Amino acid sequence: MIIEHKDDLWEVLKTQHVKPGKGGAFNQVEMKSVNNGTKLNERFRSSDSVEKASLQEQKFHFLYEDGDDYYFINQKSFEQTNIKKKIIGEKGKFLKENLEVIINFYNENPLSVNLPNQIQCEIDITDVALKKQTVSSSYKPAVLDNGL
């Protein structure tokens, strides 16, 4: 969940309802700034108001990466948008050409990318199976075509 707090956008990481023996109950919230990545622990009482950020979700297809950006296209309007690699982070390793993703926008600026629940990858390299592991289910390390 993304909230507006102290003139910034914050991603809520963890919440905990606390009822101390003395005084009123409150929510302890751990948040991370969307813009600069700093973390903040904040207490919200029942009298405090918190605004949930209004995000617009749009479906896009991944086109390509170039330098510090990933490029996407909206299949309905053919609008192209680019997103910095630092916004997408580790999710960028799972992007394949023509993969459909959902991009969240805040004030027409891309904020985050949601990948589909399942992605098909091919296995490039595996180690040989060890002897005597055929009796029970066994696993062996593998490297996928995206390097993971």
TrEMBL record:
Q: Where is the Translation elongation factor P/YeiP central domain?
A: 57-111
Q: Extract the SUPFAM superfamilies matched here.
A: Nucleic acid-binding proteins (SSF50249), Translation proteins SH3-like domain (SSF50104)
Write out the coiled-coil annotation as residue ranges. Answer: none
Q: Name one GO cellular component term.
A: cytoplasm
Q: Name one GO molecular function term.
A: translation elongation factor activity
The family database entries (InterPro entries) matched by this protein are listed as: NA-bd_OB-fold (IPR012340), Rib_uL2_dom2 (IPR014722), Transl_elong_fac_P/YeiP (IPR020599), Transl_elong_KOW-like (IPR013185), Transl_elong_P/YeiP_cen (IPR001059), Translation_prot_SH3-like_sf (IPR008991)
Q: Which PANTHER family match?
A: ELONGATION FACTOR P, TRANSLATION ELONGATION FACTOR KOW-LIKE DOMAIN-CONTAINING PROTEIN
**What's the family?**
Belongs to the elongation factor P family.
| Protein name in UniProt | Translation elongation factor P/YeiP central domain-containing protein
Species name: marine metagenome
